[in-house]
Amino acid sequence: MKNRNLSRFVRFGAVAIFAFGGMFASIGCDKTTTTTAAASGGNSGVAGVVDLDKVADAVNWNAEINKDNETAKQELTRLVTSFANEVLDKVKQHKAELIKSAKLSTQQADDLNKDVNLDKLPLTKEQLQTLAIVLQNRQQYIQGADQYAGKLLQQRRVEILTSYRKATQPIVRQVAEAQGMTLVLLKNDAIFHNAASVDITDKVTDAVRANMPKITYPSMPTMQLPTINLGEAAPATAPAAAAPATRASAK
User: Is 241 helix (H, G, I), strand (E, B) or coil?
Assistant: First the structure.
């Protein structure tokens, strides 16, 4: 019964993970024409183009991010499952007390545990109202934890991708300056065509490999889950900001 109920709710992992393709080009304030200007050259010079997703693939960053994301997902799944089991145990306890106080038959007790034919049970109006609140809160508590975990995972992913992009920006600037470029565009759907001569992706990749930057990773996620009280309205949960921890990215 517990596993069947859990399968209805613990689903955040299936919807919170997205492909990383295109993310390095979209993290930031300007998703279309994010630029890196060179320190010299004024308004003259040539505009360059860099594909940060290609860089990330070439230096194994995407694999590293996916591995970290999977670890975080597993930890959040464990926390949500543990919390959901606590909720279901309390619902089970409430039903056991109800079976005893209402002196339900074996069939009636079975119906109660399966949440069927509840309106046919010999329960008082007050008992039915309390049961309805308990069952409603069961769903709200578990779904709330599930959504909370999804937000934490999404938040963590964006923080990591932003850190990688910020770490790459000085390298892009150095490569651009060496090429006499005063503007660098991120390669994305907004660029219909560019000459190969202005694409500095390979040069940026080589520069990253030569001087692998340190990336700021958030600590593994934790969840501040509410105290379970099935007889009262289930409180809303909100993700707390994760404390960053710095380590070098894998080479």
Answer: coil
Residue 234: the pLDDT is 61
Helix-strand-coil percent breakdown of the chain, rounded to 5?
A: 55, 10, 35
Question: Crossing angle for the helix pair 106-114 and 61-102, nearest 10 degrees?
Answer: 150
Range with lowest mean pLDDT among 77-91, 181-195, 223-237: 223-237
Per-domain residue ranges of the chain? 2-9+22-223+240-248
List strand residue ranges (DSSP E) for 13-108, in order. Answer: 46-50
214-218 vs 244-248, strand pairing mode:
antiparallel
CA distance 219 to 209: 25
The label of the residue with tokens 């380590």 reads 247
Beta bridge partners of residue 18, listed in sequence order: none
| Interacting residues of 158 by C-beta distance below 8 A, sequence separation 6+ | 27
pTM greater than 0.85: no
